[in-house]
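Lab manual, section 2.4: Encoding a predicted structure.

Procedure: take the sequence of the chain (575 residues), apply the prediction step described in section 2.3, and record the output as structure tokens. A sample record is shown.
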Amino acid sequence: MIQFLFALFLGISSLAYGQQPDQKKNDYDIQDSIMIRTRDNAMISVMIVKKKNMEYPLPVIFQFTIYVRDTGRDLQSLKEAVDKGYVGVIAYTRGKRLSPNQIYPYEFDGNDAYDVIDWISKQSWCNGKIGMYGGSYNGFTQWAACKTMHPALKTIVPYVANRPGMGLPMENNIFINPNYEWAFYVGNNKYLDNETGNNRQRFRNMMFKWWETGVAYNKMDSIDGIPNKWFQSWIAHPDFDNYWQGMAPYKDDFKHINIPVLAIDGYYNDSQNSSLYYLRELQKYNPKTPFYLVIGPYSHFGAQRGGEKSINGYKVDDVSLFDIKKVTYDWFDYILKKGPKPDILKDKINYEVMGDNEWRSAPSLESTYNDFLQFYLSDTKRKEYYFLGPDKPDEKSYLLQTVDFTDRKNSNNDYYPDPIEKDEINKSNGFIFMSDPLKRSMIINGSFWGNLAISINKRDVDVGVTLYELTPEGKYFHLSYYIGRASYAKDIEKRKLLKPNKKTFIQFTNTHLISKRIKKGSRIVVSINVNKNPFSQINYGTGKEVSTETISDATEPLVIKWYNESFIKIPVLID
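Recorded output:
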């Protein structure tokens, strides 16, 4: 029987109820039914684990998550915190576990996290020092908690943190499909809908039927037969507008973040743009705030485990694998208990160089490189490739591409890094550019960027750029990629349509960061294409809201001119 306990919260009536620890196993006091009322009267379900016969107060390790695995992994993680000399607390986002509210991923987590932190800070067992950690969504909730800083929050350790609206469910203003099914997985019940989450074939069939029939993107759930209210909410905001801005720190919010941050990420983390966005904005708006980054050849899930021996068919360097739990708690001891700094943190940016089997460090993201390779996308044909040259062409010209959006037998823009290393790349559409062999070895360090000069016969287009190394052994190694919508290239907050048949420039910077040793004799390969495939929105170029466009808008093929003044710049470390 759940007992109700009343407490004061921020000077107004608040409810914290739960059963007294009736479940004491070994040395742990477990309170598994605590409820906290937020300022807007929502209820948050909380679990607390403390050590018996410990002297209190102690610092608190706090997780805030939408993933409810309470009796298994969650409870074990709380016991780990207790064994390290902390109080362990996990709260579940609004609507999850024992919360009676509706489930709204992302939307209320910042304010709710603040309220839970406030409640924790007032408990007799808390010494006023709280640290947070966790990955993916749990990384997002840490940054959301920093939108309005609570004085008791002393540090965060986000792994592969999500940033809604940037990386997912849209990347550079293009909605991508994986989050469609995720919404049901976390939103269908108070725990997790594993049956739906594991039914990949259902959503794959839906996605390919949408692709084949050419119905509007916003009708995706009508194909599935089950309304998806979360998906509909997201696609109603194609701009990076107040809806997305309000979910996590944005611009001036970063000025108030004054606590040390340890972030962990991966070169092949699908949402890397999200995670590094936070660090770059923090560096921009509050450069005095200390942040540290550990990054290596990890996927979204692998980064949360300290790496895996193989990722997308590529065997990683042995040295890249590390004990993420040890690093996390060494960091908490360093910040919350004045212990030594974790050994892996030699400087602010700590990165594993693929191919060198070596960790390196630098004081900032910008100092990881000391030069650039700049290449122009020329129209000079060399066998099956075009020349990727270091010099700007003397005469302006272009390559002409025609894309028939009614053609559903062929897709464009094979940009995803799986496998990472392969014998061939898709040359059936788009254009492939190849450089001369590099005359020396170097390390590609950072995020490549560029400027595409294009003109189209329509009002908008989604483009893709993929970067490879072609090794002397003839292997294509996937380095990084970019996909983005041309109408948002200048401002992700406001769409500006292109003028048909007029040259425009698409400057892009939001690409995936990487560190890899490039051998002498390797070549740089760049693929450019129009993004048209079953895995994301299809932009037919009419200028209408993209989610409402259908295949009936594709009567006229897209004609795009790729001008040879287009270029890319790749940051490199020459040592």
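Check your result against the sample. The chain has eleven helices and 31 strands.
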